């Protein structure tokens, strides 16, 4: 966690809410007053009436600020062209990834502009049939039946060894960061982000004995759809969906590059759990 | 559980498997040899090359035999025009509703033709916005998000009183008969069919405290979708799907008519649990 | 739920807290001012310096008021000589059985003295080896290993039929009233008190497939300890403990007499769940 | 996992079963025929009628063979004076730690005598009030109420930070090796032994939201008993029990020395899960 300073900031804001757009205008003004150069994602920039930059071209930013909820952060990580630290201003529901509240972002951003540390979070690389790559997952990848109430049959291999075969609506492969998101709803344990592991959590398994499994992040995970005629979806971070079907093999391993989060004081993992879950 | 005898039998068989069609032919021959009049569902009859009867017109049958899995029985109950007892010959995967194995149906059917008892199973009546009625559910009704990993917000009322409000992928409303089906995969308890109750089981609830609730079968259950812009599906017995959306209220109560199952010796509830689940 | 009026009230208060004893004195004065005759349980009476009555002799009371927590109510029901309605003033932690808060009992008691309705709650009759009877359980009976981390082997029969055999730390047999108490901690569902059923909930079962089972309250339940050399405890409502061992059979059925709770406005089952659990 | 060879073997066998003592005699003869020097634990040696060695003095053995179940192995690791590799011959119930079946131990032992590899399994060091040390746990440490159905109040700190405070019957702190033992019965996830982590699993928590937590094995864990007047037990590997009470703080960290298991072909972690749990 090296200390870093800031000259130019990329701003990525939800553009489907008039309120967020207004707040984003004020945020830009605030940053300009702090002598920070800014650039805004194209869609939001248009609504504000300024010139924007596609996220994929935000290569010269030292930092990215998102304005929205966890979804905005997750999408940002899918599109960022390189390893840029991200911090989220929360303007959504309960968020585990957005560390700054809208009400008092000025104080926090002043500190960050001066100097900040980075928290590296492991991501999942997803590959379909050894070919098509999906964006790396910060939270989780879900494989889910396309026909609700008609279960899939899944074969799970870890490092080439069959771990289990079971019928279920689907399965979640989560990072520790994702252990407090969808994985938790499906009954998975909370995993400290410092643990080098991924989580396998079955969704509505028919076999009563199916359990969550915690495996080393260095593992190669393969999941094979083995039931005749079944269709499924692969969903990355609840944002990106890809159709798969019988015989397809989806593989997972640790992504080369982690997600970089700006560390915000008082926002450590266990404080968030206590505040948001208990 | 009155004793009944049989003159005419309706046969309803899966028609997407050549093997099942062949077995159905033999079954018809067997029943004719036993001096039982038979009629077959239209689709299967066509494949066999005889004249069939739409299920909705099987009004003069004393008994219906299904050939297939649990799905075939569930669909049969959705379409049967009146209260006719049903028995299933299993030609699928593990089944909780099909009580006769394909290998030795002759012995069982000979007994049933002579005399049989009926097991009445409570069903759920489903109504959307006090208007459209769906077929009564023998197992369960599932309300499920149409966008996986984007949760619904549900408000549950029992007899007009709000019981809970929570975010989840969906909710299951199950009969005791359905407690060993999809409800169980989602973590619901097993409910003896003699208990006069329905089960409410959340699917992937975000609130950690969401629990299964067992409520009297005489209750009126209302489930309201309260999140802006969300779409969902209502799925009856995994067979019939209906789209719903924000603001829709789905109501449930005990159906006037139960599902009538022919009682087969040795196939009581707890024997099945031991055999199929443990 | 018939309406009843009150002439004489039995008071049963915890006597291990000086604060509760002071409050009980005030309660007695309040009731005397309302022209209600009172009698107090012997132990508390002694601390106050008046003449008391053993609970078992409170035969001429129209109503019993407890002062304490859920434990005080549960013990009261174990000892009351006959069917007397009980209402609890809460002076403990979160309580599901105590319906009146200490802060404003006067208003509630004035209403109750004039007229009240009774809520009948099913209890469990517990019998060891067809001989010794334990007090009827309002919440639950727990069978638990005496040597933590050394599991019991249990055989469960419902109406003479074996339902399951499994290794576990123990098992809970709960009433619907008890479904929000210890049973819930062990993973059991919430059961509406109007459902005529009991709950079987395994405690730390070794078999991953062991599930909660909801069975009709008219059932006869037998639980047999089948592992060599193992000792266990039978605990009724967390209050009364009895040792059992290998070969012992503990039987359960609906108690002849329910527990009678005074109905307090606004304190229905679902309001409590929302307030205390969600 | 270095390769090792064998000159002297310590044998530690259950001595409460005549059958195991007979088998142990044969095992000694078999090893002598293989030109291996043996020594037997004192208690079993007495029953056989030879001179034995206290386990604590088996310092010159290259290998220890246990005869019994998982309990025998766990006790062996508590008493072994130094880092000696252990392999278990199973003569008990389903075992996750004993890798050789009684029926065909000769073949396996011949291979091991020639050469074997060692699997190092992380253990937990347990300390009460920064003073008394208990034996290091191979599977888990359980903190459990001494009065069943009367819950403890626990405060959990990880690296000095409060993670949660909750009421429960107890808590399990497990190693990955222990994740398939008692922890699993209490609802914990399965953790691959290659993951450098410990598991915190609540036992019958009153708070519905209490979850299993996976934390780095480098963490310092503190658990404080904070309820007035409550007594509890600390149980190491189901073998060693120590009483604790209100105000006591039990601390946990990775033990300096891991448990050394002889690797037996075909007995990897996932094979065992498939064979024993699914």
From TrEMBL, chains A, B, C, D:
Broad class of the protein's primary localization: cytoplasm
Keyword annotations: ATP-binding, Cytoplasm, Kinase, NAD, NADP, Nucleotide-binding, Transferase
GO annotations of cellular component type: cytoplasm
Single GO MF descriptor: metal ion binding
Documented EC number(s): 2.7.1.23
Family annotation (InterPro entries): ATP-NAD_kinase_N, ATP-NAD_kinase_PpnK-typ_C, NAD/diacylglycerol_kinase_sf, NADK
Cofactor: a divalent metal cation
Keyword Cytoplasm in record: yes
Active site: 70 (proton acceptor)
Catalytic activity: NAD(+) + ATP = ADP + NADP(+) + H(+)
Binding site for NAD(+): 70-71, 75, 139-140, 150, 169, 180-185, 204, 239
Functional summary from the UniProt entry: Involved in the regulation of the intracellular balance of NAD and NADP, and is a key enzyme in the biosynthesis of NADP. Catalyzes specifically the phosphorylation on 2'-hydroxyl of the adenosine moiety of NAD to yield NADP.
Name of the protein described by the UniProt record: NAD kinase
